[in-house]
Specification:
It is a single chain. This protein is an alpha/beta fold. The chain has a single domain, classed as 3-Layer(aba) Sandwich (Rossmann fold). Helix content is 26%, strand content 30%. A six-stranded mixed sheet has the order 4-3-2-5-6-7. A hairpin with a 7-residue loop joins strand 8 and strand 9. The relative contact order is 0.20.
Length: 172
Amino acid sequence: MTDNSTISRRQILSSHQTGQKIRRIAFEIYEHNFEETGIIIAGIAGEGFAFAKRLAAELTDISPLHVQLVELLFDKNIHHQSPILFDKEVNIENQVVIVADDVLNTGRTLAFALEPFLKVRMKKVQVAVIVDRSHHMFPVHADYVGYSLSTTLTEHVEVVLSNSEEEGVYLK
């Protein structure tokens, strides 16, 4: 039996290339935050959190930064903003936070994800994405981008990090 989800998708980045992009983003984050003792990486649930875990591992490997990992939990599919929850207690006040997601398309998801960080005094909030599609409708930009990809509005970009057999970036 053939899986229809794989028939119409084209691989843009291989597993190896995706890993290289994530490592490069980790180096960029460290370069911009080398004077810090620690940072918080907040990954948006799903592949965004898988990306955050990989970023945290790379940062731990290449730097002396103390990296805290937190998952941002909210429903991206409802039409009104749902409450944004952290998967564990974390003190974000006066911290550097990197909000991580797999794809930046319109900016809607990231705009919602930034909400809890705007309620307290922060040192810095930055955004990291693997793919930036540049169809921004919200005032959100990524500070760290693995790959910029021009697409049509009808195309779909899928990042797979949680399945090692299919890992990579795909265009549908």
